[in-house]
Amino acid sequence: MERRAWLGLLTASGALLAARALGGQTPGQNQPRPTGSEPASGDEDSPKLPNASKAILEANDKDIKKSVEKLYQLAGELKEAVEKTNSAQVLSLAMVKKAEEIEKLAREIKSRAKG
Predict the structure, then answer these.
(1) Running DSSP on this structure, what letter comes out for residue 24?
(2) What does the pLDDT read at residue 56?
(3) Does residue 112 contact residue 20 with C-beta atoms inside 8 Å?
(4) How far is the C-alpha of 54 from the C-alpha of 67, rounded, in Å?
(5) What torsion do the CA atoms of 77, 78, 83, 84 make, to the nearest 10 degrees?
(6) Which of 18, 115, 3, 2 is nearest to 74 (CA)?
(7) Mean pLDDT per segment of 10 residues, for the chain of length 115 residues?
(8) How far is CA 71 from the centre of its chain?
(9) H-helix or E-strand containing 106?
(10) Residue 98: predicted pLDDT
């Protein structure tokens, strides 16, 4: 496989993992619509979380959003580096390390999103 294609595939997969971690769904999935017998929002029947659990979930949400921003930035930097170099002839160590960093961050986001 050509190096440029490999790096593009790696970048795209990292972005896909980040999108799944944030949204929890792929774009092709449909969300169920509430019917007349169900409440429009789940807040009325949902159990109240203890303050500590709610604070942990909010902190986790903040961490995920911060990590996704970093992932987006790293993917952009990798894209620029790939565009500037001829990856078919030269694959720089910096690009490989950046791709590995993106992959690691995407896995961390996925792990946090699962709980």
Answers:
(1) S
(2) 86
(3) no
(4) 20
(5) 70
(6) 18
(7) 61 64 51 52 54 85 93 93 80 88 94 84
(8) 7
(9) helix 93-114
(10) 92
What the block records as the tokens of 72 is 């987006």
Q: Give the Å distances, CA to CA, from 95 to 7, 34, 41, 81.
A: 8, 47, 46, 7
For residues 34 and 40, the answer to whether their CB atoms sit within 8 Å is yes
Residues 83, 78: Cα–Cα separation, whole Å: 9
Phi, psi of 28, rounded to the nearest 5 degrees: -80, -15
3-state helix, strand, coil in the chain (%, to 5): 65, 0, 35
User: Amino acid identity of 69?
Assistant: E
pLDDT of 77 reads: 92
Measure the CA–CA gap between 64 and 85, rounded to whole angstroms.
31
| Measured CA distances, 63 to 48, 105, 115 (Å) | 23, 12, 12
User: Residue 103's pLDDT is what?
Assistant: 95
What H or E segment, with its residue span, contains residue 2? none
